[in-house]
Design goal:
With 333 residues, the protein is an alpha/beta fold. The strands form two sheets. Strands 1, 2, 3, 4, 6, 7, 8, 9 and 12 form a nine-stranded mixed β-sheet that branches. Helix 12 runs antiparallel to helix 13. About 4% of the residues have low confidence.
């Protein structure tokens, strides 16, 4: 009898060990708030599954995943053909959610601010350096803009949020496109750098006169003012879920590999600095048990997690995109 109980206990322990899985991921800070929520909820619903995600920036996430150091990566930057070809892991990019990058500011006495595309580009180029500059006051009649130096704040790390922002600037400013250009780590003409969306938000909150850019949820959580931006249709837009959804609606044909930019999208209601964010996952996992958990996690995100994104000011995947993504997820091995 005693031997039988021991045998049963050993079987149960072995089964529990087989079910226990730990996934490690790294990358973008842009989706970190929603990823943190999703991974926590999934783990609670699946005892024995632990998901450890480090929000180190898209650049770091791409490097770690393509080097085979983590089970999945996260990026707001569509990988290039060269990056995909050089990866040790044969991968695919899975869009998970959409969000907005917003210009945040700390101008004493000012809570509402309009920033036209050319003005925003020229501030980050260092051509406009004072808050009472005539081009800013022209767009903000009645605002009490002070004679105060603009302190530009940008990311110091390789950043998908930076890619989204500079992708936008490159579309609205030929001088930016032919100068710093778009990228995760451009050569900034002016400014101070903060690590992560958290670092940029912290600097802007602390420095009077500061102007930076973060994913919308970081502005909301830190109670930092953010400006309206004129879209491609000429309408002023303050970032919102509806505005991001309108930008996504501009996609007529989604590429098979999901690599697409929706910054400066057409449409009267589109918020102009919007983007997808992606998880980087292996097409064929070298660890079948981990691959099974990752596949289940991704299908759970599309089927259940998308319903929670608006609570953190992200926009869910459009239905047509979600249906296509599920087919990709089901094809993973």
């Amino acid at each position: 009898m005693k031997k039988s109980l021991v045998a049963i206990l050993l079987i149960v322990l072995c089964m529990s060990a087989a079910q226990a899985q730990k996934l490690t991921g790294a990358g973008a800070t842009f989706p970190y708030p929603i990823y943190s929520k999703w991974f926590s909820e999934y783990s609670r619903a699946h005892p024995g599954v632990e998901i450890n995600y480090q929000s180190i920036g898209s650049g770091g996430g791409i490097k770690q995943f393509t080097s085979g150091l983590v089970d999945f990566g996260a990026s707001d930057v569509p990988l290039t053909d060269d990056q995909i070809g050089a990866s040790k892991v044969k991968l695919t990019m899975i869009p998970t959610v959409l969000g907005a990058v917003v210009p945040i500011f700390n101008v004493p006495g000012v809570s509402d601010l309009k920033l036209s595309p050319d003005v925003l580009a020229d501030i980050f180029l260092g051509k406009i350096n004072n808050w009472n500059d005539g081009r800013i006051t022209k767009d903000n009649p009645g605002a009490s803009l002070p004679n105060l130096k603009i302190v530009v704040v940008h990311r110091s790390d390789g950043s998908g949020t930076t890619f989204i922002f500079t992708d936008y600037l490159s579309k609205v400013s030929s001088e930016w496109a032919n100068g710093p250009g778009k990228g995760a780590s451009p050569s900034w003409p002016v400014g101070v750098g903060g690590k992560g969306n958290e670092g940029v938000a912290g600097f802007v909150r602390q420095l009077p006169g500061a102007l930076g850019y973060v994913e919308l949820i970081y502005a909301l959580q830190n109670h930092i003012s953010y400006g309206e931006v004129k879209n491609a249709a000429g309408n002023w837009q303050k970032a919102s879920i509806d505005g991001v959804t309108a930008a996504a609606a501009s996609i007529k044909t989604l590429p098979a590999d999901y690599r697409v930019s929706i910054t400066n999208a057409p449409g009267k209601d589109a918020y102009p600095i919007s983007s997808f964010t992606w998880m980087l996952v292996p097409l064929r996992s070298t660890d079948p048990a981990k691959g099974k958990v990752l596949k289940d996690l991704l299908s759970w995100i599309v089927n259940s997690g998308e319903g929670e994104v608006s609570s953190l000011s992200y926009a869910p995947l459009p239905k047509s995109v979600a249906e296509k993504v599920l087919k990709t997820v089901y094809s993973l091995q």
